[in-house]
């Protein structure tokens, strides 16, 4: 970064001379030495160096010989609600006192000081979806956050994003004493919750038509109100499902109630590939770099992302941080490529695909005019495990740099060692 950075430390920057991979829907896999110009936090121009003039008042980040990509997006994390190494003190991810807590909100539990956010920046991850855990059948509302900021309000990209639900082993063994203990009980609980939401929506419609004022909302009413937004298609339904039969149950429920299903984990997705292809369902796959630590993971395979993508499905990769540390997101993609995934599709699985799956592609996931100025300069191909993120620009603001060691910009404007 040249000296002009000190004069404009906040929202304007030009990343110049790097091999730019735009990752837009039209991206053909190529790159060209180019410029990404960001003004007031948004990208205003992307193109060859000769075609994008840099205004004299804009700081220049020289990326010559480097790779320039959009910030990565991890679509399933527990950043800020499940801090590493803090035990119960940092565990705000599962409210086990609530077997069906659709009204719970992840962003009320996020700690921006969680070290995982700095680790994300060092890996080129600029956007994450924060989900509740999978102890409960309905865990709560999800949110999309940027990975830098002093308060949740500074970090929030979109909230609520959707509602998290879990099928299978985790809610069977980990839920509250009032929760179901079998797969058929879990499916019945979800049907009951959706039916209550339908009744709530119908009652509200009748009351409004009659000119009645609604009374004070109870907890059950607030849960139903949130789920009514899921059934209306306003909010996503993030469905935790590893095993093939649980994936099929998730599809069955979506057919019954019509919600926008996003499958998460999808460990045995290759065993129901025709079902997924028939419905064109997106898949958030991972975490890949785990042991077969429980029965649902007995068929875990690094080849699954490539098999699903090869079948024409939209695939995104996740670490499920802190299940797998977020630093290993690009490593996960590299291993998926080694096991057969197309390299260009692997890069999409870190950028455009998760943004599209989450409905955030109007803001993040590629380098195009109008999108957020989230730009990462890499030393080389991010799928090479020896490459590292050298500079991370978030919303036009340089927030991470490598200078023989990783440094993160503090909210006080000073740089600190990672």
From TrEMBL:
Domain Amidohydrolase: 286-400
UniProt cross-references to SUPFAM superfamilies, sorted A to Z: Composite domain of metallo-dependent hydrolases, Metallo-dependent hydrolases
Matching Pfam families: Amidohydro_3 (PF07969)
Protein name: Amidohydrolase
Source organism per UniProt: Kineococcus halophytocola
């Amino acid at each position: 970064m040249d000296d002009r950075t000190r004069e404009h430390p906040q929202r304007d920057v030009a990343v110049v001379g790097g091999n730019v991979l735009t990752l837009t829907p039209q991206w053909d896999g190529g790159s060209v030495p180019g410029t990404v110009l960001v003004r007031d936090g948004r990208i205003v121009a992307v193109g060859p160096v000769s075609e994008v003039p840099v205004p004299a008042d804009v700081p220049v980040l020289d990326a010559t010989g480097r790779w320039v990509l959009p910030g990565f997006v991890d679509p399933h994390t527990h950043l800020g609600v499940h801090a590493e190494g803090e035990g119960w003190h940092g565990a705000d991810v599962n409210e086990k006192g609530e077997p069906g807590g659709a009204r719970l909100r992840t962003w009320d539990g996020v700690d921006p000081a969680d070290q995982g956010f700095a680790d994300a920046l060092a890996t080129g991850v600029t956007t994450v979806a924060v989900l509740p855990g999978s102890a409960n059948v309905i865990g709560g509302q999800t949110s999309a956050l940027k990975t830098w900021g002093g308060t949740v309000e500074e970090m929030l990209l979109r909230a609520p994003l959707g509602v998290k639900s879990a099928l299978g082993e985790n809610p069977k063994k980990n839920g509250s004493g009032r929760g179901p203990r079998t797969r058929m009980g879990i499916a019945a609980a979800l049907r009951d919750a959706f039916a209550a939401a339908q009744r709530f929506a119908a009652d509200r419609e009748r009351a409004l038509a009659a000119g009645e004022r609604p009374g004070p909302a109870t907890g059950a009413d607030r849960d139903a109100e949130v789920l009514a937004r899921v059934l209306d298609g306003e909010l996503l339904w993030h469905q935790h499902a590893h095993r093939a039969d649980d994936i099929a149950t998730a599809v069955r429920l979506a057919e019954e109630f019509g919600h926008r299903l996003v499958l998460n984990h999808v460990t045995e997705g290759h065993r129901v590939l025709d079902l997924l292809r028939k419905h064109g369902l997106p898949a958030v796959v991972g975490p890949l770099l785990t042991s077969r630590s429980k029965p649902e993971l007995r068929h875990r395979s690094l080849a699954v992302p490539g098999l699903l993508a090869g079948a024409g499905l939209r695939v995104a990769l996740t670490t499920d941080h802190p299940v797998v540390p977020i630093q290993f997101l690009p490593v996960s993609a590299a291993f998926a490529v080694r096991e057969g995934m197309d390299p260009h599709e692997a890069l999409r699985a870190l950028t455009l695909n998760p943004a599209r799956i989450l409905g955030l592609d109007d803001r993040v996931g590629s380098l195009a005019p109008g999108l957020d100025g989230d730009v990462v300069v890499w030393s080389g191909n991010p799928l090479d495990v020896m490459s590292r993120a050298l500079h991370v620009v978030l919303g036009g603001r340089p927030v991470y740099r490598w200078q023989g060691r990783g440094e993160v910009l503090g909210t006080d404007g000073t740089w600190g060692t990672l």
